[in-house]
């Protein structure tokens, strides 16, 4: 089983978010699963990989050459795929992964979440899509999604395939469901 984790690369975030990422990486590895990330070494993205490797986990990074050129790449990855664009990165991460967990993050994280959620809804894949948010950072987003559903901007079934978790154990249990 391979789990893609979408998360922050900002070095300005509170350490509770990178601690969460590190622990998620540890728990993925302890299950014997592999980790797929965007291949960066900073913030939550680096922490989730270091967490997995600290427990003997296999990590796969996918990163555009442009980010490698600015010394962003996690060269500690067991596999580091260097690609030509962000679009190629996302496609490869989707192909390599069996489930997707989104941690707190910024616009890149949200863009990845929305793209993978839409792909699931349109049946381009049938893999679990999970938001792991023990701190409530995404509460306004959750409320917005519920409001969009109430106002009929979302079709029936769209919210049912996006899973919300408040603990790592809950997120990993959801990831293993098909």
Beta content: 15-25%
Number of helices: 7
The main β sheet shows up as: 7 strands, parallel
> Which fold name is given in CATH as the topology?
Rossmann fold
Number of domains: 1
CATH class: Alpha Beta
From the helix content, strand content and strand pairing, which structural class follows? alpha/beta
**Arithmetic mean pLDDT:** 96
CATH architecture: 3-Layer(aba) Sandwich
* Shape verdict: globular
Widest β-sheet, arrangement of strands: 4-3-2-1-5-6-7
Helix content: 40-55%
Succession of helices and strands: EHEHEHEHEHEHEH
Low confidence ranges: none
In angstroms, what is the radius of gyration? 15 Å
* Number of strand segments: 7
Distance between the termini: 12 Å
Describe the structure in your own words.
This protein has 178 residues and is α/β, with parallel strands linked by helices. The protein has one domain: Rossmann fold (3-Layer(aba) Sandwich). The chain has helices at 15-30, 43-54, 65-69, 86-96, 107-121, 139-150, 168-175, and strands at 2-6, 34-37, 59-64, 79-83, 99-102, 129-132, 162-165. It has a seven-stranded parallel beta sheet with strand order 4-3-2-1-5-6-7, sandwiched between helices. Strand 5, helix 5 (107-121) and strand 6 (129-132) form a beta-alpha-beta unit. The longest helix has 16 residues, at 15-30. The radius of gyration is 15 Å and the shape is globular. It starts with a strand and ends with a helix.
């Amino acid at each position: 089983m391979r789990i893609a984790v979408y998360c922050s690369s900002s070095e300005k975030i509170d350490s509770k978010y990178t601690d969460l990422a590190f622990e998620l990486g540890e728990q993925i590895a302890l299950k014997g699963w592999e980790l797929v990330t965007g291949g960066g070494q900073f913030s939550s993205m680096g922490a989730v990989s270091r967490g997995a490797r600290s427990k003997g986990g296999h990590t796969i990074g996918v990163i555009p050459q442009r980010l490698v050129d600015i010394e962003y790449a996690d060269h500690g990855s067991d596999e580091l795929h260097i690609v030509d664009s962000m679009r190629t990165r996302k496609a490869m991460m989707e192909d390599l992964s069996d489930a997707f967990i989104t941690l707190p993050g910024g616009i890149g994280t949200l863009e990845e979440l929305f793209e993978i959620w839409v792909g699931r809804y349109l049946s381009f894949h049938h893999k679990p899509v999970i938001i792991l948010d023990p701190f409530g950072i995404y509460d306004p987003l959750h409320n917005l999604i519920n409001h969009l559903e109430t106002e009929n901007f979302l079709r029936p079934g769209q919210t049912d395939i996006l899973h919300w978790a408040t603990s790592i154990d809950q997120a990993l249990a959801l990831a293993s469901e098909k």
